[in-house]
Protein backbone atom coordinates (compact mmCIF):
# COMPACT_ATOMS: atom_id res chain seq x y z
CA UNK A 1 0.00 0.00 0.00
CA UNK A 2 1.54 3.34 -1.00
CA UNK A 3 2.19 5.84 1.76
CA UNK A 4 1.06 9.46 1.47
CA UNK A 5 3.07 11.79 -0.78
CA UNK A 6 6.18 13.15 0.92
CA UNK A 7 9.30 15.24 0.65
CA UNK A 8 12.09 13.48 2.52
CA UNK A 9 15.14 15.66 3.04
CA UNK A 10 18.29 13.75 3.95
CA UNK A 11 20.88 15.97 5.60
CA UNK A 12 24.14 14.20 5.01
CA UNK A 13 22.64 13.04 1.72
CA UNK A 14 26.01 12.06 0.24
CA UNK A 15 27.32 10.46 3.43
CA UNK A 16 28.02 6.87 4.30
CA UNK A 17 24.69 6.07 5.95
CA UNK A 18 22.69 7.58 3.11
CA UNK A 19 24.64 5.62 0.51
CA UNK A 20 24.81 2.37 2.43
CA UNK A 21 21.37 2.21 4.02
CA UNK A 22 18.85 5.00 3.47
CA UNK A 23 18.90 5.30 -0.33
CA UNK A 24 18.99 1.51 -0.92
CA UNK A 25 16.09 1.10 1.55
CA UNK A 26 14.07 3.75 -0.28
CA UNK A 27 14.81 2.06 -3.59
CA UNK A 28 13.44 -1.23 -2.31
CA UNK A 29 10.28 0.45 -1.08
CA UNK A 30 9.97 2.12 -4.47
CA UNK A 31 10.18 -1.26 -6.18
CA UNK A 32 7.62 -2.64 -3.74
CA UNK A 33 5.20 0.04 -4.93
CA UNK A 34 5.08 1.93 -1.66
CA UNK A 35 6.27 5.25 -2.96
CA UNK A 36 3.53 7.36 -4.51
CA UNK A 37 4.36 9.18 -7.76
CA UNK A 38 4.53 12.55 -5.99
CA UNK A 39 7.15 11.41 -3.45
CA UNK A 40 10.55 13.11 -3.59
CA UNK A 41 13.86 12.52 -1.87
CA UNK A 42 16.07 15.53 -1.44
CA UNK A 43 19.73 15.04 -0.63
CA UNK A 44 21.16 17.98 1.27
CA UNK A 45 24.86 18.29 1.94
CA UNK A 46 27.83 20.52 1.44
CA UNK A 47 29.27 20.17 -2.01
CA UNK A 48 28.51 21.52 -5.37
CA UNK A 49 26.31 18.90 -7.00
CA UNK A 50 23.29 19.33 -9.21
CA UNK A 51 20.42 16.84 -9.40
CA UNK A 52 22.07 14.90 -12.20
CA UNK A 53 25.37 14.53 -10.38
CA UNK A 54 23.60 13.47 -7.20
CA UNK A 55 21.57 10.89 -9.08
CA UNK A 56 24.77 9.52 -10.56
CA UNK A 57 26.36 9.19 -7.14
CA UNK A 58 23.32 7.38 -5.80
CA UNK A 59 23.22 5.09 -8.83
CA UNK A 60 26.69 4.06 -7.74
CA UNK A 61 25.51 3.53 -4.17
CA UNK A 62 22.67 1.26 -5.29
CA UNK A 63 25.05 -0.79 -7.41
CA UNK A 64 27.48 -1.07 -4.51
CA UNK A 65 25.11 -1.85 -1.67
CA UNK A 66 22.23 -3.79 -3.20
CA UNK A 67 22.85 -7.38 -4.11
CA UNK A 68 21.29 -9.00 -7.13
CA UNK A 69 20.67 -7.63 -10.57
CA UNK A 70 19.27 -4.16 -10.65
CA UNK A 71 16.88 -3.34 -13.43
CA UNK A 72 18.26 -0.22 -15.15
CA UNK A 73 14.79 1.16 -15.94
CA UNK A 74 13.67 0.76 -12.33
CA UNK A 75 16.81 2.44 -11.12
CA UNK A 76 16.35 5.39 -13.47
CA UNK A 77 12.68 5.75 -12.52
CA UNK A 78 13.69 5.80 -8.87
CA UNK A 79 16.55 8.23 -9.37
CA UNK A 80 14.15 10.66 -11.06
CA UNK A 81 12.67 11.20 -7.59
CA UNK A 82 15.99 12.44 -6.26
CA UNK A 83 17.03 16.07 -5.98
CA UNK A 84 19.96 17.83 -4.43
CA UNK A 85 20.41 21.01 -2.45
CA UNK A 86 23.84 22.26 -1.53
CA UNK A 87 23.58 23.47 2.03
CA UNK A 88 25.69 24.63 4.94
CA UNK A 89 24.22 23.29 8.18
CA UNK A 90 25.60 26.05 10.34
CA UNK A 91 25.85 28.90 7.79
CA UNK A 92 23.30 30.58 5.53
CA UNK A 93 24.07 29.01 2.19
CA UNK A 94 21.39 26.90 0.61
CA UNK A 95 18.55 27.34 3.09
CA UNK A 96 16.41 29.52 0.88
CA UNK A 97 16.88 27.02 -1.96
CA UNK A 98 15.61 24.29 0.30
CA UNK A 99 12.65 26.39 1.39
CA UNK A 100 11.72 27.13 -2.22
CA UNK A 101 11.82 23.46 -3.05
CA UNK A 102 9.45 22.34 -0.32
CA UNK A 103 5.80 21.76 -1.13
CA UNK A 104 2.90 22.59 1.15
CA UNK A 105 0.56 19.73 0.47
CA UNK A 106 2.84 16.77 1.28
CA UNK A 107 4.42 15.29 4.39
CA UNK A 108 7.78 16.83 5.21
CA UNK A 109 10.39 14.65 6.86
CA UNK A 110 13.96 15.66 7.67
CA UNK A 111 16.53 12.97 8.25
CA UNK A 112 19.54 14.08 10.34
CA UNK A 113 22.15 11.72 8.97
CA UNK A 114 25.00 13.95 10.10
CA UNK A 115 27.44 14.25 13.00
CA UNK A 116 25.48 14.58 16.29
CA UNK A 117 27.14 17.93 16.92
CA UNK A 118 24.99 19.31 14.07
CA UNK A 119 21.60 18.03 15.31
CA UNK A 120 20.88 21.16 17.33
CA UNK A 121 21.95 23.52 14.54
CA UNK A 122 19.75 21.75 12.00
CA UNK A 123 16.70 21.84 14.26
CA UNK A 124 17.27 25.52 14.84
CA UNK A 125 17.70 26.30 11.14
CA UNK A 126 14.61 24.37 10.09
CA UNK A 127 12.67 26.47 12.54
CA UNK A 128 14.29 29.85 11.84
CA UNK A 129 14.05 29.41 8.10
CA UNK A 130 10.41 28.45 8.41
CA UNK A 131 10.94 25.16 6.64
CA UNK A 132 9.53 22.78 9.23
CA UNK A 133 5.91 23.16 10.29
CA UNK A 134 3.77 21.42 12.90
CA UNK A 135 3.24 18.47 10.55
CA UNK A 136 6.94 17.96 9.86
CA UNK A 137 8.97 15.09 11.27
CA UNK A 138 12.63 14.84 12.09
CA UNK A 139 14.62 11.63 12.17
CA UNK A 140 17.62 11.51 14.47
CA UNK A 141 20.36 8.89 14.21
CA UNK A 142 22.43 7.50 17.04
CA UNK A 143 24.53 8.24 19.01
CA UNK A 144 21.91 10.13 20.97
CA UNK A 145 24.30 11.80 23.39
CA UNK A 146 27.20 10.10 25.15
CA UNK A 147 25.74 10.25 28.66
CA UNK A 148 22.65 11.44 30.48
CA UNK A 149 23.74 15.04 30.51
CA UNK A 150 24.37 15.33 26.77
CA UNK A 151 21.25 13.31 25.91
CA UNK A 152 19.15 15.64 28.06
CA UNK A 153 20.67 18.69 26.43
CA UNK A 154 19.93 17.24 23.01
CA UNK A 155 16.34 16.41 23.95
CA UNK A 156 15.91 19.95 25.22
CA UNK A 157 17.32 21.46 22.03
CA UNK A 158 15.03 19.40 19.82
CA UNK A 159 12.05 20.09 22.08
CA UNK A 160 12.50 23.80 21.58
CA UNK A 161 11.29 23.46 18.01
CA UNK A 162 9.64 20.07 17.74
CA UNK A 163 6.99 18.24 19.68
CA UNK A 164 7.86 14.71 20.88
CA UNK A 165 5.34 13.33 18.35
CA UNK A 166 7.51 14.81 15.57
CA UNK A 167 10.81 13.32 16.74
CA UNK A 168 11.85 9.89 15.45
CA UNK A 169 14.95 8.62 17.28
CA UNK A 170 16.34 5.68 15.37
CA UNK A 171 17.60 2.48 16.91
CA UNK A 172 17.90 0.38 13.81
CA UNK A 173 17.63 -2.84 15.83
CA UNK A 174 13.94 -2.09 16.32
CA UNK A 175 13.49 -2.10 12.55
CA UNK A 176 14.91 -5.60 12.19
CA UNK A 177 12.25 -8.12 11.22
CA UNK A 178 13.42 -10.62 13.80
CA UNK A 179 13.41 -8.06 16.58
CA UNK A 180 9.80 -7.21 15.85
CA UNK A 181 9.21 -10.91 15.79
CA UNK A 182 10.16 -11.07 19.45
CA UNK A 183 6.91 -9.29 20.18
CA UNK A 184 4.94 -11.52 17.81
CA UNK A 185 6.32 -14.65 19.48
CA UNK A 186 5.67 -13.40 22.99
CA UNK A 187 2.28 -11.84 22.52
CA UNK A 188 0.86 -13.78 19.57
CA UNK A 189 1.16 -17.19 21.24
CA UNK A 190 -0.50 -18.46 24.36
CA UNK A 191 2.29 -20.95 24.84
CA UNK A 192 5.13 -18.82 26.14
CA UNK A 193 3.68 -16.01 28.22
CA UNK A 194 2.59 -18.11 31.23
CA UNK A 195 6.18 -19.39 31.58
CA UNK A 196 7.81 -16.04 30.89
CA UNK A 197 8.81 -15.12 34.42
CA UNK A 198 11.19 -15.82 37.27
CA UNK A 199 9.25 -18.86 38.38
CA UNK A 200 10.07 -20.78 35.21
CA UNK A 201 13.02 -18.99 33.66
CA UNK A 202 16.47 -19.63 35.11
CA UNK A 203 18.19 -16.91 33.12
CA UNK A 204 18.23 -15.19 29.75
CA UNK A 205 21.24 -14.66 27.51
CA UNK A 206 21.40 -11.91 24.91
CA UNK A 207 24.37 -12.09 22.57
CA UNK A 208 25.28 -9.76 19.74
CA UNK A 209 28.57 -11.03 18.36
CA UNK A 210 30.34 -9.44 15.43
CA UNK A 211 33.38 -10.50 13.45
CA UNK A 212 34.27 -7.02 12.22
CA UNK A 213 36.75 -4.81 14.03
CA UNK A 214 36.58 -1.06 14.35
CA UNK A 215 39.07 0.01 11.71
CA UNK A 216 37.80 2.97 9.71
CA UNK A 217 35.74 4.37 12.57
CA UNK A 218 38.36 4.23 15.29
CA UNK A 219 38.17 7.89 16.25
CA UNK A 220 34.46 7.62 17.05
CA UNK A 221 34.58 4.15 18.54
CA UNK A 222 37.48 4.77 20.87
CA UNK A 223 35.47 7.51 22.58
CA UNK A 224 32.43 5.25 22.86
CA UNK A 225 33.32 1.60 23.44
CA UNK A 226 30.93 -1.33 23.37
CA UNK A 227 28.93 -0.08 26.33
CA UNK A 228 27.90 3.17 24.68
CA UNK A 229 27.92 1.87 21.12
CA UNK A 230 25.84 -1.28 21.62
CA UNK A 231 24.62 -1.86 25.17
CA UNK A 232 22.99 1.48 25.97
CA UNK A 233 20.87 1.25 22.82
CA UNK A 234 20.58 -1.98 20.83
CA UNK A 235 21.08 -4.47 23.66
CA UNK A 236 18.85 -2.42 25.92
CA UNK A 237 16.07 -2.49 23.36
CA UNK A 238 16.34 -6.25 23.01
CA UNK A 239 16.25 -6.65 26.77
CA UNK A 240 13.17 -4.43 26.98
CA UNK A 241 11.24 -6.38 24.37
CA UNK A 242 12.03 -9.65 26.13
CA UNK A 243 11.35 -8.41 29.64
CA UNK A 244 8.48 -5.93 29.30
CA UNK A 245 4.90 -6.52 30.39
CA UNK A 246 2.41 -7.05 27.57
CA UNK A 247 1.37 -3.60 26.32
CA UNK A 248 -2.39 -3.25 26.00
CA UNK A 249 -2.03 -2.41 22.31
CA UNK A 250 0.70 -2.38 19.71
CA UNK A 251 0.75 1.40 19.74
CA UNK A 252 3.62 3.82 20.23
CA UNK A 253 3.12 4.98 23.78
CA UNK A 254 1.66 1.72 25.04
CA UNK A 255 4.82 -0.10 23.92
CA UNK A 256 7.24 2.61 24.97
CA UNK A 257 5.68 2.98 28.41
CA UNK A 258 6.33 -0.71 29.06
CA UNK A 259 9.91 -0.53 27.82
CA UNK A 260 10.57 2.47 30.01
CA UNK A 261 9.35 0.58 33.09
CA UNK A 262 11.88 -2.16 32.40
CA UNK A 263 14.78 0.27 32.07
CA UNK A 264 13.79 1.98 35.28
CA UNK A 265 13.67 -1.37 37.08
CA UNK A 266 17.22 -2.39 36.08
CA UNK A 267 19.52 -2.92 39.04
CA UNK A 268 22.85 -1.14 39.20
CA UNK A 269 25.52 -3.64 38.13
CA UNK A 270 28.34 -4.25 40.62
CA UNK A 271 31.81 -4.19 39.06
CA UNK A 272 32.20 -7.94 39.73
CA UNK A 273 29.35 -8.60 37.33
CA UNK A 274 30.85 -6.76 34.37
CA UNK A 275 33.66 -8.01 32.16
CA UNK A 276 35.24 -5.65 29.66
CA UNK A 277 37.48 -6.94 26.91
CA UNK A 278 39.59 -5.59 24.09
CA UNK A 279 40.74 -7.61 21.10
CA UNK A 280 44.42 -8.32 20.79
CA UNK A 281 46.16 -8.69 17.44
CA UNK A 282 47.89 -11.51 15.63
CA UNK A 283 50.57 -11.50 12.96
CA UNK A 284 47.86 -10.92 10.36
CA UNK A 285 45.13 -9.09 12.23
CA UNK A 286 45.72 -5.68 13.79
CA UNK A 287 44.84 -5.27 17.43
CA UNK A 288 42.15 -2.94 18.68
CA UNK A 289 44.79 -0.44 19.68
CA UNK A 290 46.26 -0.51 16.20
CA UNK A 291 42.80 -0.14 14.65
CA UNK A 292 42.04 2.96 16.69
CA UNK A 293 45.64 4.22 16.51
CA UNK A 294 45.80 4.68 20.24
CA UNK A 295 48.50 2.52 21.84
CA UNK A 296 47.20 3.17 25.37
CA UNK A 297 43.51 2.81 24.72
CA UNK A 298 41.52 1.28 27.56
CA UNK A 299 38.26 1.29 25.67
CA UNK A 300 36.33 -1.97 25.55
CA UNK A 301 35.45 -3.71 22.29
CA UNK A 302 33.67 -6.43 24.25
CA UNK A 303 31.44 -6.37 27.28
CA UNK A 304 29.62 -9.09 29.17
CA UNK A 305 27.46 -8.49 32.20
CA UNK A 306 24.89 -9.90 34.52
CA UNK A 307 21.89 -7.65 34.97
CA UNK A 308 19.03 -7.97 37.43
CA UNK A 309 15.56 -6.52 37.06
CA UNK A 310 13.78 -5.59 40.26
CA UNK A 311 10.15 -6.26 39.53
CA UNK A 312 7.67 -9.03 40.27
CA UNK A 313 8.14 -10.80 36.98
CA UNK A 314 11.92 -11.00 36.98
CA UNK A 315 13.34 -10.63 40.48
CA UNK A 316 15.93 -13.41 40.88
CA UNK A 317 16.27 -14.20 37.15
CA UNK A 318 19.45 -12.66 35.74
CA UNK A 319 19.81 -11.37 32.21
CA UNK A 320 23.27 -11.94 30.79
CA UNK A 321 24.28 -9.52 28.04
CA UNK A 322 27.30 -10.01 25.82
CA UNK A 323 28.49 -8.13 22.78
CA UNK A 324 31.81 -7.66 21.06
CA UNK A 325 33.81 -7.10 17.91
CA UNK A 326 36.22 -9.54 16.25
CA UNK A 327 34.56 -12.56 17.78
CA UNK A 328 34.35 -16.04 16.33
CA UNK A 329 31.17 -15.50 14.31
CA UNK A 330 28.56 -12.93 13.45
CA UNK A 331 25.72 -14.25 15.52
CA UNK A 332 23.00 -12.48 17.44
CA UNK A 333 20.59 -14.45 19.49
CA UNK A 334 18.48 -14.48 22.60
CA UNK A 335 18.29 -17.63 24.65
CA UNK A 336 15.64 -18.14 27.28
CA UNK A 337 16.92 -20.89 29.53
CA UNK A 338 14.09 -22.46 31.52
CA UNK A 339 14.48 -24.04 34.93
CA UNK A 340 14.81 -27.74 35.58
CA UNK A 341 11.63 -29.74 35.94
CA UNK A 342 10.82 -29.63 39.66
CA UNK A 343 11.24 -33.38 40.06
CA UNK A 344 12.65 -36.08 37.83
CA UNK A 345 10.41 -39.15 37.80
CA UNK A 346 13.06 -41.05 35.85
CA UNK A 347 15.72 -40.79 38.48
CA UNK A 348 19.01 -38.96 38.33
CA UNK A 349 20.61 -41.50 35.97
CA UNK A 350 18.16 -40.48 33.19
CA UNK A 351 19.96 -37.16 33.10
CA UNK A 352 18.66 -33.69 33.76
CA UNK A 353 17.66 -31.51 30.87
CA UNK A 354 16.49 -28.01 30.37
CA UNK A 355 14.26 -26.41 27.81
CA UNK A 356 15.96 -23.58 25.99
CA UNK A 357 14.17 -21.28 23.60
CA UNK A 358 16.64 -19.66 21.23
CA UNK A 359 15.62 -16.82 18.98
CA UNK A 360 18.19 -16.20 16.25
CA UNK A 361 18.17 -12.57 15.23
CA UNK A 362 20.87 -12.81 12.56
CA UNK A 363 22.02 -14.55 10.49
CA UNK A 364 19.95 -17.64 9.76
CA UNK A 365 16.94 -15.95 11.31
CA UNK A 366 14.64 -18.30 13.13
CA UNK A 367 13.93 -19.97 16.41
CA UNK A 368 14.64 -23.21 18.14
CA UNK A 369 13.10 -24.89 21.14
CA UNK A 370 15.13 -27.58 22.85
CA UNK A 371 12.75 -30.34 23.91
CA UNK A 372 13.59 -33.35 26.05
CA UNK A 373 12.57 -36.76 24.73
CA UNK A 374 13.46 -40.37 25.32
CA UNK A 375 16.73 -41.54 23.90
CA UNK A 376 15.79 -44.32 21.46
CA UNK A 377 16.80 -47.83 22.42
CA UNK A 378 15.64 -50.87 24.35
CA UNK A 379 17.49 -49.95 27.55
CA UNK A 380 16.09 -47.92 30.39
CA UNK A 381 14.60 -44.48 30.25
CA UNK A 382 17.33 -42.09 29.30
CA UNK A 383 16.61 -38.56 28.20
CA UNK A 384 18.05 -36.54 25.40
CA UNK A 385 17.55 -32.99 24.08
CA UNK A 386 16.39 -32.49 20.53
CA UNK A 387 15.76 -29.23 18.73
CA UNK A 388 12.46 -28.11 17.30
CA UNK A 389 14.19 -25.90 14.81
CA UNK A 390 12.70 -23.42 12.41
CA UNK A 391 14.28 -20.93 10.07
CA UNK A 392 12.02 -18.21 8.78
CA UNK A 393 13.25 -18.79 5.24
CA UNK A 394 12.03 -22.41 5.34
CA UNK A 395 8.86 -21.75 7.24
CA UNK A 396 7.67 -18.76 5.26
CA UNK A 397 8.94 -19.65 1.80
CA UNK A 398 9.96 -16.80 -0.53
CA UNK A 399 8.38 -14.27 1.85
CA UNK A 400 10.76 -15.36 4.58
CA UNK A 401 13.79 -15.34 2.35
CA UNK A 402 13.91 -11.65 1.67
CA UNK A 403 14.30 -10.23 5.12
CA UNK A 404 13.79 -6.50 4.55
CA UNK A 405 16.48 -4.24 5.88
CA UNK A 406 15.63 -2.42 9.10
CA UNK A 407 15.76 0.94 7.36
CA UNK A 408 13.04 -0.02 4.88
CA UNK A 409 10.58 -0.39 7.68
CA UNK A 410 11.77 2.55 9.72
CA UNK A 411 11.85 5.16 6.96
CA UNK A 412 8.36 4.22 5.85
CA UNK A 413 7.13 4.34 9.44
CA UNK A 414 8.33 7.94 9.62
CA UNK A 415 6.18 8.79 6.62
CA UNK A 416 3.24 6.86 8.04
CA UNK A 417 3.67 8.74 11.31
CA UNK A 418 4.09 5.59 13.37
CA UNK A 419 6.51 6.01 16.29
CA UNK A 420 6.15 2.52 17.78
CA UNK A 421 9.60 1.42 16.65
CA UNK A 422 11.36 4.64 17.65
CA UNK A 423 12.77 5.60 21.01
CA UNK A 424 11.05 8.18 23.10
CA UNK A 425 13.15 10.86 24.81
CA UNK A 426 12.52 9.56 28.32
CA UNK A 427 13.54 6.04 27.27
CA UNK A 428 16.90 7.23 25.99
CA UNK A 429 17.49 9.25 29.12
CA UNK A 430 16.59 6.33 31.38
CA UNK A 431 19.00 4.10 29.47
CA UNK A 432 21.81 6.59 30.00
CA UNK A 433 20.88 7.02 33.66
CA UNK A 434 21.51 3.30 34.10
CA UNK A 435 24.67 3.23 31.93
CA UNK A 436 26.45 6.29 33.31
CA UNK A 437 27.33 4.99 36.80
CA UNK A 438 28.76 1.77 35.34
CA UNK A 439 31.01 3.66 32.97
CA UNK A 440 31.94 6.24 35.61
CA UNK A 441 32.90 3.45 38.00
CA UNK A 442 35.38 1.79 35.67
CA UNK A 443 36.76 5.08 34.50
CA UNK A 444 37.35 6.07 38.13
CA UNK A 445 39.16 2.79 38.74
CA UNK A 446 41.21 3.38 35.61
CA UNK A 447 40.43 -0.19 34.73
CA UNK A 448 42.07 -2.02 31.86
CA UNK A 449 39.95 -4.30 29.72
CA UNK A 450 41.02 -7.95 29.49
CA UNK A 451 42.62 -8.85 26.18
CA UNK A 452 41.06 -11.55 24.01
CA UNK A 453 42.17 -13.34 20.87
CA UNK A 454 40.52 -12.23 17.65
CA UNK A 455 38.21 -15.00 16.46
CA UNK A 456 37.52 -16.21 20.00
CA UNK A 457 34.41 -15.93 22.18
CA UNK A 458 35.85 -13.04 24.16
CA UNK A 459 37.97 -13.03 27.30
CA UNK A 460 38.10 -15.97 29.69
CA UNK A 461 36.71 -13.72 32.43
CA UNK A 462 33.36 -13.70 30.63
CA UNK A 463 33.20 -17.47 30.97
CA UNK A 464 34.04 -17.19 34.64
CA UNK A 465 31.16 -14.76 35.13
CA UNK A 466 28.83 -17.57 34.09
CA UNK A 467 30.67 -20.42 35.79
CA UNK A 468 30.41 -18.65 39.12
CA UNK A 469 26.67 -19.25 38.94
CA UNK A 470 27.02 -22.74 37.48
CA UNK A 471 25.85 -21.54 34.11
CA UNK A 472 27.37 -21.52 30.66
CA UNK A 473 27.28 -19.15 27.74
CA UNK A 474 25.86 -20.60 24.60
CA UNK A 475 28.52 -21.17 22.02
CA UNK A 476 29.06 -18.41 19.45
CA UNK A 477 28.94 -20.15 16.09
C1 LIG B 1 25.81 0.13 15.06
C2 LIG B 1 27.09 0.18 15.83
O1 LIG B 1 24.83 0.90 15.70
O2 LIG B 1 25.37 -1.22 14.97
C3 LIG B 1 28.14 -0.68 15.16
O3 LIG B 1 27.54 1.52 15.89
C4 LIG B 1 27.63 -2.09 14.95
O4 LIG B 1 29.34 -0.71 15.92
C5 LIG B 1 26.26 -2.08 14.28
O5 LIG B 1 28.56 -2.78 14.16
C6 LIG B 1 25.66 -3.46 14.24
O6 LIG B 1 24.52 -3.46 13.43
P1 LIG B 1 24.07 -4.75 12.64
O7 LIG B 1 22.78 -4.33 12.00
O8 LIG B 1 25.14 -5.07 11.67
O9 LIG B 1 23.88 -5.82 13.67
Automatic annotation (TrEMBL):
Belongs to the glucose-6-phosphate dehydrogenase family. It comes from Oceaniovalibus guishaninsula JLT2003. Residues 183-474 form the Glucose-6-phosphate dehydrogenase C-terminal domain. PANTHER family: GLUCOSE-6-PHOSPHATE 1-DEHYDROGENASE, GLUCOSE-6-PHOSPHATE 1-DEHYDROGENASE G6PD. The lineage of its organism: Bacteria, Pseudomonadati, Pseudomonadota, Alphaproteobacteria, Rhodobacterales. The active site is at 234 (proton acceptor). It holds the Pfam family G6PD_C. This is Glucose-6-phosphate 1-dehydrogenase. GO terms for biological process: glucose metabolic process; pentose-phosphate shunt, oxidative branch. It is an enzyme of class 1 (oxidoreductase). Catalyzes the oxidation of glucose 6-phosphate to 6-phosphogluconolactone.
Amino acid sequence: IPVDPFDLVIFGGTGDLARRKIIPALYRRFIAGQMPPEARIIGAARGDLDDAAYRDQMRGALAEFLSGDLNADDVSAFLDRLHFVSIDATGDAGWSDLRDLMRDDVIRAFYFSVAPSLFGALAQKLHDQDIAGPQSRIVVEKPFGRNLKTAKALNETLARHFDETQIYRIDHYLGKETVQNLMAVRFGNVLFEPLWNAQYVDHIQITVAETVGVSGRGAFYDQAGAMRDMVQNHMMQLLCLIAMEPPSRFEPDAVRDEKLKVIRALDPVPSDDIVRGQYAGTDDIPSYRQDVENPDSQTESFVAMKVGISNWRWAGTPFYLRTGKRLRARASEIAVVFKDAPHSIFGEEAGRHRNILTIRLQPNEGMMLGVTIKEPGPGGMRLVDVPLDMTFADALGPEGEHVPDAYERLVMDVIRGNQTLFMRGDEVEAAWAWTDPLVDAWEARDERPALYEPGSSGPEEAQILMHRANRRWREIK
